[in-house]
Specification:
This protein has 108 residues and is mostly helical. The chain has one domain: Up-down Bundle (Four Helix Bundle (Hemerythrin (Met), subunit A)). The protein is 62% helix and 0% strand. It contains five helices and no strands. Helix 2 packs antiparallel against helix 3. The longest helix has 25 residues.
Length: 108
Protein backbone atom coordinates (compact mmCIF):
# COMPACT_ATOMS: atom_id res chain seq x y z
CA UNK A 1 0.00 0.00 0.00
CA UNK A 2 1.46 3.39 -0.93
CA UNK A 3 2.41 5.61 1.99
CA UNK A 4 -0.01 8.26 0.64
CA UNK A 5 -2.89 5.98 1.59
CA UNK A 6 -1.79 6.00 5.23
CA UNK A 7 -1.58 9.75 5.65
CA UNK A 8 -4.64 11.62 6.87
CA UNK A 9 -6.85 12.89 4.07
CA UNK A 10 -6.60 16.38 5.51
CA UNK A 11 -3.15 16.88 3.93
CA UNK A 12 -5.03 17.13 0.63
CA UNK A 13 -7.43 19.62 2.19
CA UNK A 14 -4.97 22.14 3.64
CA UNK A 15 -5.59 24.74 0.92
CA UNK A 16 -9.29 24.19 1.41
CA UNK A 17 -9.26 24.40 5.22
CA UNK A 18 -10.72 27.91 5.16
CA UNK A 19 -13.48 26.80 2.79
CA UNK A 20 -14.24 23.75 4.95
CA UNK A 21 -14.35 25.96 8.04
CA UNK A 22 -16.83 28.27 6.29
CA UNK A 23 -19.03 25.34 5.22
CA UNK A 24 -19.06 23.95 8.75
CA UNK A 25 -19.87 27.38 10.13
CA UNK A 26 -22.72 27.72 7.63
CA UNK A 27 -24.06 24.30 8.69
CA UNK A 28 -23.83 25.35 12.34
CA UNK A 29 -25.60 28.66 11.74
CA UNK A 30 -28.36 26.92 9.79
CA UNK A 31 -28.93 24.36 12.54
CA UNK A 32 -28.97 27.05 15.23
CA UNK A 33 -31.60 28.96 13.20
CA UNK A 34 -33.68 25.79 12.88
CA UNK A 35 -33.42 25.19 16.62
CA UNK A 36 -34.44 28.78 17.39
CA UNK A 37 -37.41 28.54 15.01
CA UNK A 38 -38.57 25.33 16.66
CA UNK A 39 -38.25 26.90 20.11
CA UNK A 40 -40.19 29.98 18.97
CA UNK A 41 -42.97 27.92 17.47
CA UNK A 42 -43.16 25.46 20.36
CA UNK A 43 -46.54 25.28 22.01
CA UNK A 44 -46.70 25.25 25.76
CA UNK A 45 -46.60 21.75 27.14
CA UNK A 46 -44.71 18.73 25.90
CA UNK A 47 -44.67 17.79 22.24
CA UNK A 48 -42.80 14.54 21.62
CA UNK A 49 -42.24 15.19 17.91
CA UNK A 50 -40.84 18.65 18.65
CA UNK A 51 -38.50 17.19 21.27
CA UNK A 52 -37.28 14.56 18.80
CA UNK A 53 -36.61 17.22 16.16
CA UNK A 54 -34.75 19.43 18.62
CA UNK A 55 -32.64 16.51 19.85
CA UNK A 56 -31.77 15.57 16.26
CA UNK A 57 -30.62 19.13 15.57
CA UNK A 58 -28.55 19.13 18.77
CA UNK A 59 -26.87 15.87 17.69
CA UNK A 60 -25.98 17.42 14.32
CA UNK A 61 -24.61 20.50 16.11
CA UNK A 62 -22.40 18.19 18.19
CA UNK A 63 -21.21 16.47 14.98
CA UNK A 64 -20.40 19.86 13.46
CA UNK A 65 -18.41 20.88 16.54
CA UNK A 66 -16.53 17.57 16.41
CA UNK A 67 -15.75 18.18 12.71
CA UNK A 68 -14.43 21.65 13.57
CA UNK A 69 -12.16 20.05 16.18
CA UNK A 70 -10.94 17.48 13.64
CA UNK A 71 -10.21 20.29 11.20
CA UNK A 72 -8.20 22.14 13.84
CA UNK A 73 -6.25 19.01 14.79
CA UNK A 74 -5.54 17.99 11.16
CA UNK A 75 -7.70 14.85 11.45
CA UNK A 76 -10.52 16.15 9.23
CA UNK A 77 -11.29 13.98 6.23
CA UNK A 78 -10.05 10.74 7.76
CA UNK A 79 -12.56 8.01 8.61
CA UNK A 80 -12.63 7.53 12.37
CA UNK A 81 -13.45 3.84 11.95
CA UNK A 82 -11.02 2.57 9.31
CA UNK A 83 -8.51 5.45 9.04
CA UNK A 84 -8.86 5.82 5.29
CA UNK A 85 -9.58 9.14 3.57
CA UNK A 86 -13.26 10.07 3.38
CA UNK A 87 -14.08 10.77 -0.27
CA UNK A 88 -14.26 14.46 -1.12
CA UNK A 89 -17.71 13.97 -2.62
CA UNK A 90 -19.03 12.72 0.73
CA UNK A 91 -17.50 15.67 2.57
CA UNK A 92 -19.05 18.07 0.06
CA UNK A 93 -22.48 16.61 0.81
CA UNK A 94 -21.96 16.08 4.54
CA UNK A 95 -19.04 18.25 5.69
CA UNK A 96 -19.25 16.93 9.24
CA UNK A 97 -19.05 13.25 8.21
CA UNK A 98 -16.79 11.33 10.57
CA UNK A 99 -16.81 8.04 8.66
CA UNK A 100 -16.66 6.85 5.08
CA UNK A 101 -19.89 5.43 3.64
CA UNK A 102 -18.86 1.79 4.14
CA UNK A 103 -18.03 2.28 7.82
CA UNK A 104 -21.13 4.44 8.39
CA UNK A 105 -23.32 1.67 6.98
CA UNK A 106 -21.64 -0.90 9.23
CA UNK A 107 -21.98 1.18 12.39
CA UNK A 108 -25.36 2.71 11.59
Amino acid sequence: MPSDMLRPASHHLRPLAHEVHQRLQHERTSRLAQLAALKDSAPTGTDTQLAVQMNAIRRVLAEIEAAQSRLASDAYGTCQACGRPIPTERLEILPYARCCVDCQERTG
